[in-house]
Amino acid sequence: MINRQDIDKLATLSRLKLSDEEKAVMEKDMVNILAYVDTLKSAPTGGASGPIMTDNRNVMREDANPNEGGKNTKKLVSLAPKSQGDLVKVKKILGGTQ
Predict the structure, then answer these.
(1) Residue 34, domain CATH
(2) Would you say residue 37 lies in a domain?
(3) What is the dihedral of CA 71, 74, 75, 78, to 10 degrees?
C-alpha cells in the first residue's frame, strides 16, 4: 500500500520536516486511512449507480425582498463607536502599534 518513500514524498510536497518517529506514525496512520477507504468502497449501496439522495430540502427562508445595497450603511456606521466616512474604524490588531 504505502511505504516510507511515499511518506517522504508527501512530506516534501507538503513542505513538512518530519522526524523518523513522525514518519513511522504517519505511515501507520496512512495505512489505516487507506484501509478504511477500501472498506467504504466495498459498502453495499443497494445497487444504486450514483449517490443516494434522501429527502433534502432548503430549510433557510427564501430572500424574497432583499434590501437595496447600501440602504442602511450610513445608519449602521453612525452607530459605531468610531467611524470615518462610510467606514468603521477598529483597533489595529496585526503588525505594529496603533
Answers:
(1) 1.10.20
(2) yes
(3) 170
